[in-house]
Amino acid sequence: MHAEVIAVGTEMLLGEITDTNSQVISEGLAQLGIDVYYHSLVGDNEQRMTETITLAASRSDLVVISGGLGPTPDDLTKQVVAKYLHRQLVVDQEALAQITTFFAERHREMTPNNRIQAMYIEGAQSLPNYVGMAVGNYYQNPNGADFLLLPGPPQEMQTMFEQVAKPLLAKNYAGQQVLTSRLLRFYGIGEANLVTKLADLIDQQVNPTIAPYAKDNEVTLRLTASGSDEMTDQKLLDELETKIRARVGEYLYGYGEKNSLPAVVVQELTERGLTVSAAESLTGGGFQTAVTAIPGASNVFPGGFVTYAAEQKEAMLKIDEEVVEQYGVVSEQTAIAMAEHTRQIVGTDYAVSFTGAAGPDFLEGHPAGTVWLGLAGRDIQTQAKLYHFSYDRQHVRNSAIMAGFGLLQEALTTENFKH
């Protein structure tokens, strides 16, 4: 079985907002074993919507549409689909009562157009909206493609899709192949190098499949297996991951969409009862911001420093001015001193330091992108590592921040830094 996902909204065509719904829908359909062959985006125009829906229905078994279910004149999805199906719109009395109560409790006037949100296509199943007003629609068409209509606001769409629509689709389309995905996250290796090391696995892929994606300062691999049940899929994924780990396992740091490198590092520190502090120059507090953005960071991060000017490295971190004068700000010695003094002052298990030239100009004769990172710890020998990042100033800063997490993660998981 295959489907097409349509996003409705002129604001997306104008670039005012991004269509995130289609990705969520496609991932959910894949989990049900329903292949998505096409994505479409159409504005709030009856003629163009009709053309898009007609084409989708001619080549797909299921058409999923998000957006256009609201009360305004440009919300046309239900009307257009109903007209295409030669059906009327009818009122979901329970939904209408909820909408009426909503306005009454807030002492607000309910205008006639709000009634549209409680309407659904005759012969369809009305889908409740737990976080909004517009009901969804699920129409099983005996003479063609089925239709699933979902609201446009992402929170409304995702709640309805996950809690109502997916269980309904799973029941009605039982027997489809089960698709199971696993996302592997890598740091410290580029996409080209990763793909080269896995070239034969990628070239020979059938089931599971391997899809590499290059992201900012990291690479991910999405492994997808297709089988009769999830247990079979997981076994196939385990076998493939074992082969991948044998070649590039040292770069694998985590799994899933939400397990970013900062989140993985904070979790590792938390589980081991360890703490970290930082002294930042060119990154201007970016590393500490990334740490504190993770829930539970207060357990591992008591504080740190932003010492942008050379004199503040001396004043705040108590670094001997002769170190900076002799070796310069952009140096191994300064990075080591920053890390060591920070750990001693704050009293943490680890401390990371950042110093270098973010650009666009040279600093102390060093080109933009020259960065030294220092790492100090209770049971490791303090040392610094030199990096050469490229592109613009912000990319250099972001790359340095990620490298800081990479350095700390390596210290937490390997013996490289032990005496």
TrEMBL record:
<comment type="similarity">
    <text>Belongs to the CinA family.</text>
</comment>
<dbReference type="InterPro" id="IPR008135">
    <property type="entry name" value="Competence-induced_CinA"/>
</dbReference>
<protein>
    <recommendedName>
        <fullName>Putative competence-damage inducible protein</fullName>
    </recommendedName>
</protein>
<feature type="domain" description="MoaB/Mog">
    <location>
        <begin position="4"/>
        <end position="171"/>
    </location>
</feature>
<dbReference type="Pfam" id="PF00994">
    <property type="entry name" value="MoCF_biosynth"/>
</dbReference>
<dbReference type="Pfam" id="PF02464">
    <property type="entry name" value="CinA"/>
</dbReference>
<dbReference type="Pfam" id="PF18146">
    <property type="entry name" value="CinA_KH"/>
</dbReference>
<dbReference type="InterPro" id="IPR008136">
    <property type="entry name" value="CinA_C"/>
</dbReference>
<dbReference type="InterPro" id="IPR036425">
    <property type="entry name" value="MoaB/Mog-like_dom_sf"/>
</dbReference>
<dbReference type="InterPro" id="IPR001453">
    <property type="entry name" value="MoaB/Mog_dom"/>
</dbReference>
<dbReference type="InterPro" id="IPR041424">
    <property type="entry name" value="CinA_KH"/>
</dbReference>
<dbReference type="InterPro" id="IPR036653">
    <property type="entry name" value="CinA-like_C"/>
</dbReference>
<dbReference type="InterPro" id="IPR050101">
    <property type="entry name" value="CinA"/>
</dbReference>
